[in-house]
Amino acid sequence: MTPPVTTISEQATVRLIPSAYYKPPVLGPLADTEDELEILAVIEGLTNRRLKAENTGISGLDPRELAFNVWGQSHINAAFAYTRAAGNRFNDANRGAWYCAFDDKTAIAEVAFHKTRELAYINIFEDVSVYQALLAGFIGDFHDLRGIKGSPAYLGKDPATAYPAGQGLAAELRKEGARGIIYSSVRQKGGTCLAAFHPQLVQNVRPGARWRIIWDGSPEYRVKIDR
Q1: How far apart are CA 207 and CA 151, in angstroms?
Q2: Every domain of the chain and the residues it spans
Q3: How far apart are alpha carbons 100 and 107 in whole angstroms?
Q4: Of 63, 163, 190, 225, which residue is most buried, by most CB within 10 angstroms?
Q5: What counts of helices (H) and strands (E) characterise the chain?
Q6: Would the pTM count as exceeding 0.85?
Q7: Rounded distance, CA 154 to CA 150, Å?
Q8: Which residues are CB-neighbours of 8 under 8 A, at least 6 positions away?
Q9: What is the rounded CA–CA span in Å between residue 195 and residue 181?
């Protein structure tokens, strides 16, 4: 069953990225001239998945789809070029998506869930992570899962079962030309998330708040504005 479509006009969705990725190009200080910087950029491009996607494309992602000559283009393109080995809720390992929330609180809950899972793997809940919010606008028709009755597998809390089901749904919708999926957050009660399937849908990217998420010895975390 194809989910219904909802027309949205959201001007300030929230995506959180680690603050380490929100900084000037790392190669800049190593070069004394533009020619040297160009040489270093070529070397970096051999291992940088985003640059490879922009220059030649990668499996599942054509460079003609990517964003160019707009503020935040590296963040937009990275969202589609870099993937987890097992994918995420609505994308597989071949192609990423732009995941965001309709508010900061939901975005924080989503990233904190994944970071807590990482800490659980090593059983050490001592960490301070700083995330930069990227705001972006979305206008248009998106498939909407919020009104789906029952408990579809792709909306479950367990990534082991929910993500494969969600990836299957997203693959079918993309074949039909879908722009993306709106869905209720399973990490934040009452929160709403969006997964955009195409880079060109991500509009007017600009910085938002910066958040510090702190784990003090348990899976429970606390949050504060980073100043």
Answers
A1: 35
A2: 5-225
A3: 7
A4: 163
A5: 5, 7
A6: yes
A7: 11
A8: 138, 139, 140, 142, 182
A9: 5
